[in-house]
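Notes continue from the previous slide.

Worked example: a multi-chain complex. Inputs as given:
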Amino acid sequence: MKSLGSFRRKFAPWNDPEAKPFIAIENVTKRFGDFTAVDDLSLNIYNREFFALLGASGCGKSTLLRMLAGFETPTSGRILIDGQDMSGIPPYKRPVNMMFQSYALFPHMTVEANIAFGLKQDGMPKNEIEARVAEMLKLVKLEQFAKRKPHQLSGGQRQRVALARCVAKRPKVLLLDEPLGALDKKLREETQFELMDLQMKLGLTFVVVTHDQEEAMTMSDRIAVMDKGKVKQVATPAEVYEAPNSKFVADFIGNVNMFEGTAAAVENGKIDIDVAADKMTIRTDATRNCSVGQTVGFAIRPEKIRLSRKEPANPAVNAAYGELYDIAYFGDMTVFHVRLENGRIIKAASLNAVRTVEDPLGYEDMVWVNFDTDAGILLTA
Amino acid sequence: MQKLIASVTSRLVISIPYLWLLVFFLIPFIIVFKISLSEVAMAIPPYTPVVDITAGIKSVFNSISQFSWDNYVWLVEDPLYYKAYISSLVIAIVSTFLTLIIGYPIAYGMARAPATIRPTLLMLVILPFWTSFLIRVYAWIGILKPEGLLNQFLMWANVIDTPLNILNTNTAIFIGIVYSYLPFLVLPIYSALEKMDYSLVEAAEDLGCTPLMAFWKITFPLSMPGVIAGCFLVFIPATGEFVIPDLLGGSSTLMIGKTLWSEFFSNRDWPVSSAVAVILLLLLVVPIVLFQRSEAKAQESEK
């Protein structure tokens, strides 16, 4: 059997111009009174994709999910699922099932009855229901809890019942609203992989809403970063992290050092940015078109910055000198805060690959920070 | 020492409700029960024997030996009483059912109303309590009588051409009970519905229920504790109701509250009216206790 990874690496229908999207969201706007929750949003989600809607609370991601489920109607625009226009189709007739953030398990029914609920609504014969429920209980490893009521289960078990209940109907699309939000950290990490595994096994399309970027990065094939009802970037986790398309995305995902300056020279595929505030010149790959004199941004992740006591070879470019102001030790890595002369803090991270270091850096040490021309990313938006 | 004080205080706190029940429920009941075992007498108080604790233990025992079950035998022998009991129960059951049919949608509408107007709606339900119950029932006479507001309106609207005879019928009693006890039913159902997580209904719809099915399978079962509490709060006082049948009902209406009243005030037969009250109490308490036991058992078996 092939591993999950080998499938994942090759799975990229969004790069295939022939591929038909499974869910097509076309110019959807949703207003609540004066408030625009979702603003002229278009998005394609492909069959068997694990798709994450990522954003801060109030960015419209939950509203979008609720529109897919049919609990909200778009003010304008339309949503197609498997080629079928969903306008005017009530939730109970849609080929999607949703897992609620609160799990919404029926408190007056046993685990078994909860899972069977949707099947009964479809008028499935009794023996088939029993077989399907048994299969689902096995899938989520809750066989011995079939007769329990939801209040007799732990948080993790409830989450699995909720999952089994919405998977039982074999929907085309599973919508998950903050599926791991109520679990503690350790359980959350385990469950992430369980979810991915389940999605692969059942061959479903998952749309997950989350505010947790780590969760989105770990689980999903693609992430849509949302802000104020709009999609800022749709890309694979690696692309979103390494090649953000805007200052917002760069800042939102992970840790970043952000610079702003004027393009001083563009030549040989490189651009020199004059960061007057920090008296720095940054030379980076000109990955985006820009002209001399234009205000541009530059983002660089802490782990791509080097720290040393020695002066770098070319201190005039991509380098700064400052005092070690703060050290945050995480065990696996350490984040150093270097304060420049003007008070600006630059964050640099290093992996603690060996247990003891000779002459470690300490508070108030004077250090150089420097980085390569391909370490950061030029931003024009 | 501190432990001792703590245990004494905690016992004291627990004992308050028990003391309350003892003083205001058990002792009055014992007094009523004692009177029901006595005989009528032309005296003050109008029954015999009178137990006088100050006269010594011997006299108390002497009094107790004179107690008899004659009044209860009388209740069984005269069909008037059991007919009144049955008619009271029927009227109470029908009016509880009517109150539920009207009250549930009101409670549902309140619970689903925007959170900002819910306090106002709650206020409107409670508002009638600010006027005397008696006055509100009297007001219904003005509405229901042949030349009353309702008939005037219906005749003006050309719905009827002769006045409807509602006052002094069982219909008027139903109207009175439903109107008077509606808040007692609405409030517990409202509180059950209001704390229900609405995403449960959405989940049911997501799993294939039409809104109506989702109501029957999720909302209604989950509001059941409120429904039961509300029905008890209507049914129990309605069974022994006196004011409403007396003011709105006709002379033919037989209700145990009225019977009790006439035994007590017209016949001055305290012992028989006490026996009527004791039987009424048993009639109401026994089924409720049995019901609560079975509920508790069901909950126990779940754990």
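Summary box: Chain A touches chain B through 26 residues (CB under 8 Å). The radius of gyration of chain A is 25 Å.
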